């Protein structure tokens, strides 16, 4: 797919797009973050798990997004039992050092579990099919009472990095007051597991075909940020979830620029 260089969003200025107060000052330092695109095979093709964030949240309030969030300092714990591509491999794909690559991948697994109930873990040989025994741990992770490393060790679980694939790298525009340097992963819903909306950060969630989510955005039924919109347009090209996982990807950091004019927001994509 040819990478578009510009999107035009017909949304009012300020609707889900914030502007920092010190527009003439230095931009905010972006926080490292991880997002996971969960996919599955539906009756009519590939489906993706989406969440509608609660309105009024400091970042992306009211927007429809994939599960994800910022890296916690404890995500870098090297004691995590690990199966699959090593941090050095992820570092090479995401153009970062091994410590950050480990933290990003751990954050991806942790945030996916917190926000959707899907746990990309198991033993070195098997993937979890039933996560109900870990409901209390999910809440403890969300409130930061326990770290991912502590939870996995206590449960005798191994992080399954082999269930993830690198997908993209986006950085929040400099004009925004809250900025994230986000690596996007993709994962297929593990057999036997279910994704839910049991998180305080989402007012609703569910599975949808990528093309239907885009149609909803075009017709004003949902709001999508540029990374979500572009990712959905890419996913719409695939016939199966396995096709998504097996797609070759060149990870290039994309740093959008926002241009506000005549009540519209034009988003210019700039690979860097």
From TrEMBL:
SUPFAM superfamilies: Nudix. The keyword Manganese applies. It comes from the Bacteria. Its cofactor is Mg(2+); Mn(2+). Coiled coil: none annotated. InterPro entries: NUDIX_hydrolase-like_dom_sf, NUDIX_hydrolase_dom, NUDT19. Keywords: Hydrolase, Magnesium, Manganese, Metal-binding. GO terms for molecular function: hydrolase activity. PANTHER family: ACYL-COENZYME A DIPHOSPHATASE NUDT19, TESTOSTERONE-REGULATED PROTEIN RP2. This is NUDIX hydrolase. It comes from Amycolatopsis plumensis.
């Amino acid at each position: 797919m040819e990478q578009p260089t510009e999107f035009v969003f017909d949304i009012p200025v300020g609707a889900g797009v914030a502007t920092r107060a010190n527009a003439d000052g230095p931009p905010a330092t972006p926080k490292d973050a991880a997002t996971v695109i969960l996919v599955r095979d539906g009756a009519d093709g590939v489906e993706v798990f989406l969440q509608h964030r609660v309105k009024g949240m400091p970042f992306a309030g009211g927007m429809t997004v994939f599960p994800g969030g910022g890296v916690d300092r404890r995500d870098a714990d090297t004691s995590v039992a690990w199966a699959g591509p090593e941090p050095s491999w992820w570092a090479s794909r995401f153009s970062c050092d091994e410590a950050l690559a480990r933290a990003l991948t751990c954050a991806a697994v942790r945030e996916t579990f917190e926000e959707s109930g899907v746990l990309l873990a198991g033993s070195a040989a098997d993937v979890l099919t039933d996560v109900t025994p870990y409901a209390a741990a999910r809440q403890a992770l969300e409130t930061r009472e326990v770290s991912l490393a502590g939870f996995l060790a206590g449960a005798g679980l191994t992080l399954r990095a082999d269930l993830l694939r690198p997908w993209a790298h986006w950085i929040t525009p400099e004009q925004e007051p809250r900025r994230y340097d986000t690596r996007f992963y993709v994962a297929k819903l593990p057999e036997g597991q279910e994704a839910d909306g049991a998180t305080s950060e989402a007012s609703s969630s569910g599975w949808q075909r990528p093309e239907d989510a885009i149609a909803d955005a075009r017709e004003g039924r949902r709001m999508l940020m540029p990374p979500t919109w572009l990712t959905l347009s890419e996913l719409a090209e695939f016939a199966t979830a396995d096709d998504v996982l097996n797609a070759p990807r060149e990870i290039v950091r994309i740093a959008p620029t926002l241009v506000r004019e005549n009540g519209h927001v034009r988003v210019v994509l700039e690979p860097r």
